[in-house]
Prior knowledge:
This protein has 193 residues and is an alpha+beta fold. It is built from 4 helices and 8 strands; from the N terminus they run E-H-H-E-E-E-E-E-H-E-H-E. The longest helix has 25 residues, at 13-37. It starts with 6 loop residues before the first strand and ends in a 9-residue tail after the last strand.
Amino acid sequence: MPASDTVTFECNTGRYLLAGLFVAAFGILILTFLAFASQPLAVVLAAPILVLAGVTLAGSFLRRGPFLIIGPEGLTYMPFSHKPVPWTDLSAVVLVRYEGRRVDFPGRVVYYPQPSSDMINFAVRDLKPYPSGLGRSISRLVARMQGLPPISIQVPYVKGATMEGIAEAIGRHWDGKTENKPFNYPRWGRPGG
């Protein structure tokens, strides 16, 4: 395949900035309300949230250049690794579509898409050659607890991307099966979901 078959996406820094501000506001809110009850408890609960907010805000200012690269040599997702994951190392790709749930009168359940939560999860055969750390380990554990492959590309944080666009670019190079998986709130609400 020609090198021009490479698709490059940048980071949606505005989304990172918004997420960081939201998390910071949440941490400050917890700190403020719990400070009246117990200052040590407020600090213990708010500190990790404020650290997460700081990391997210820093990400909005520091992430420049390619964020996701899909090409003949493999898939490069900067939050996972700065080097490409060769297509032969991939063992699973799952398109995770989140759905909201509401009950309309007279009790009819309606599911609706929530594209702001869509993800593409993938798994590699061996994680040892790739970076690891506490944050990555927690993220991978959460994905596994949901029955998903451990590495998550959060589509809204990829500038100008849609789930379909990323999946189509992956499908041009990867021969494996791409699974679709709907998740809804509450998760157990949809029969078979």
